[in-house]
Amino acid sequence: MNRRAWQSAVAALALVGAVAVWLLATRVFPYHSLNHDEAVYLQQAALLLEGQLVLEPPLEEVFRPWFFVEDGGRLYPKYAPVPAAIFALGELLGAARLALAGTAAAVLALVAAVVRETFDRRTGLTAAAIVLCSPLFVIESAVFLPYAPTAMFNLAFAYCYLRADRTNDRRVAGLAGVAIGIAFFARPYTAVLFAAPFIAHACWTLKRNPRTALPRQAATAAFGMAGVALALAYNAAVTGSPLLFPYEAFAPRDGPGFGHRQILSHEAEYTVGLALRSNALVLERFVIDWIAGGLFGGIAAAVGFVVAVRRGLSPRQSVLAGQVPSIVVGNVFFWGNFNILGDLERAGDGLIATHGPYYHFDLLLPVAAFAAVGVLAIAAVARRTADRNLSPERARVVLVAALLVSSLALGGVTATSLDETIDRNAAATDTYERVYEPLEDGTDDPSVVFLPTPYGEWLNHPFQPLRNDPDFDGKRVYALDERPFAVVDEYPDRSLYRLAYRGTWTPTAGSPQASRLQRVEHVSGAELAFNATIGVPPGTESLTATVTANGTSATYVAENVTDRSTVRLTATDDRLRVTGTNWNADEPLSLADREDVRLTVFVDRGPGRSFSYRFELPVRTTGGSVRALTPRIERCSAIRNCGGEAAYVPDSAPRNTFVRTELDASNADG
Q: Where does 58-198 show beta strands of DSSP type E?
């Protein structure tokens, strides 16, 4: 294959990869994936486009995005800014997902170039095709995560290093240093594991021919150390210490190593035994589900390695072979490979089921390289055998048939693995589309939207598309519901809404089933009244209302209820009264200055048919005045379902169940 034909083939392969990744990113991941780290990088990309490294929210406790570190009044991301800068570049070109397509194309072209440097052009092209057909490459390249971008810089380093080794070009050697320095800045541990075999090769060249190798290796080392210095300078800017990495500031026990590992409330004793077991499972899934051809691809790589050894493995080829133990052993020390498995006893659990063994992304290079050697060697043996035993015409027919059968078999294995993975991710996307639909159909007026917190007090976890602008002054501002009155005071001229959903947050299982964008009213005055009119289905035996305020509760029973009932709460600066038709209310309850008044109406229809309406009414009292916001409303089929996942959604409510609310104030002052 001549140079021009090879370059054209590589360009076509890269273009196919870019288109495939673009289609996957836009069709399967329009709302992003189950890995909520995507939002971290996209929030960071928005910061970089504004020339900022940190967020400075106007209020504490209500604007903290997922995986951002609190530092006084500042918030900075856990991750280094290199992948985010790549995504920001795509945004500058018109769409952030252009960066995904461009990165995918670059990875494929660089795989071809690296393998060409170590073997030949035909092997390089075959290796790139194998990477393109690997589900791990396709899925990870289509999401806003750091593994493909970091691999791009690692591969650029590998290509430049090998080219400089062949040509003794110091400028190319310097580019190798630049590339690995950027990779280190992006993901230090990943870059070190990738570069380790190259460092060993560099030491060997220095010992073998120091006069020739020293200037070249010095250029690589100098520019590589510049990247390290840049990473340390970034650390100093955001954490205050060049040796304190942001991920360590977020969770000091989250890095490589054995023993007690912890991030937030998730912790484990990461023993050597657990590490070996976890990584064995990860590697098993890598070979079976996430490379081209599955187990057949792994066998082809093993055959290719044996063939390369029998032909005489060159030092440059040994570098690629050395990446396998470097990456595999290095990952044993990192408990992230335990975390992506979820429950070790359940197949298909954890992020590995939807995203693959992404910490082993760099293994695609050596596996594809030796698989390409194996495939071409097997094809050569088959051709020689056919030529010896068959006529030329029959040999061609047999070879074409064998090629078709093997391609169909390997393609079928790959397609099955990829199809299952896409189906899992598509199920989550269908759920996201249902949850976000009220926002897409909602009002376009300047607004504040309070978001639920299924995973704790974080923004963008899980609601990744609902991100704030770096100045927290976009058309929509998203806030946690922790300090609602402070948010109202900060944004007095905006409309208020609350996103709520019904069902547990398990997107791959089709839950939540429904959501709503609830309009929130803010009233204040000397006295306020909240009316809740609820539907009472036929066959109801009784209604019981429980009101909780200031740590105390009172229970009331309704009399002579038909198809509806109204409960009225009247609040002043220190008292709360319950009134309403058919309710035998007694003494008032006291109100604290900061209170979420809870009203629960139990509709008793007998075992298996009863349910509750629950209202959480935010109330604040100050100096003779009382303020309130429209309550959170739930319809709970069981008491354990209340508390955020049983939102009342009018369009999906059963027949004869409904809620109508009114909130008003007398002597209104705002």
A: 68-71, 74-77
Q: Quick check: bond before 512 cis, omega within 30? A: yes
| Residue 387 backbone dihedrals phi, psi, to 5 degrees | -65, -35
Asked if the structure places residue 349 within a domain, the reply is no
| 600 located within any domain | yes
Same domain, 490 and 536: no
Q: Which of 462, 487, 509 is the last residue of a domain?
A: 509
Whether residues 534 and 644 share a domain: the answer is yes
| Sign of the alpha-carbon torsion through 647, 443, 66, 98 | positive
Hey, what's the torsion of the CAs at 128, 129, 132, 137, to 10 degrees?
A: -50
Residue 634: left (phi > 0), alpha (psi -120 to 50), or beta? Answer: beta
Reported as a single tens digit per residue, the pLDDT across 201-241 is 999 999 999 999 999 999 999 999 999 999 999 999 999 99
Rounded CA-CA distance 579/456 in Å is: 35
Provide the percentage of residues in the chain whose pLDDT is more than 70: 93
Beta-bridge partners for 236: none
Tell me, yes or no, whether 492 and 528 share the same domain.
no
Question: Judging by beta carbons within 10 Å of its beta carbon (0-12, 13-18, 19+), is residue 45 exposed, middle or buried?
Answer: buried
- Do 497 and 535 lie in a common domain? no
Angle at 134 between CA 133 and CA 138, to 5 degrees: 90
Whether residue 145 contacts residue 83, with contact meaning beta carbons closer than 8 Å, is answered with yes
Q: Which of 162-166, 264-268, 345-349, 650-654 has the lowest mean pLDDT?
A: 345-349
* Tokens coding 313: 């493995």
**Look-up of token digits 């100096």:** 623
Which has the closest alpha carbon to 460: 441, 475, 480? 480
3-state secondary structure of 214: helix
> Can you name the residues that pair with 592 across neighbouring β-strands?
none
In a domain, 655, yes or no: yes
* pLDDT tens figures, 449-486: 999 999 999 999 999 999 999 999 999 999 999 899 99
Residue 442 and residue 575 in one domain: no
Percentage of the chain surpassing pLDDT 90? 73
Task: Determine the Cα–Cα distance for residues 555 and 598; give it in Å rounded to an integer.
Answer: 12
In a domain, 610, yes or no: yes
Q: What is the mean pLDDT of residues 119-140?
A: 95
Residue pair 212/168 in contact by the 8 Å Cβ criterion: yes
Tell me whether residue 596 is exposed, middle or buried, using C-beta atoms within 10 angstroms of its C-beta: 0 to 12, 13 to 18, 19 or more: middle
Give the whole-angstrom CA distance, residue 603 versus residue 304: 70
Instruction: Residue 485: give the domain boundaries.
Output: 427-509
The whole-number average pLDDT for the span 117-145 is 95
Choice among 215-219, 451-455, 561-565, 616-620 with the minimum mean pLDDT: 561-565
Contact assessment for residue 366 and residue 321, using Cβ atoms and an 8 Å cutoff: yes
pTM of the model: 0.93
pLDDT of 405 strictly over 60: no
Bridge partner list, 614: 600, 634
Tell me the DSSP string of 261-325.
EEETTEEEEE-HHHHHHHHHHHHHHHHHHSSTTTHHHHHHHHHHHHHHHHH---HHHHHHHHHHH
Q: What is the rounded average pLDDT for all residues in the chain?
A: 91
Q: Give the pair of three-digit tokens for residue 6.
A: 């090879």
Q: What is the DSSP letter of 31?
A: T
Give the whole-angstrom CA distance, residue 535 versus residue 603.
10
Q: Is the pLDDT of residue 429 over 50?
A: yes
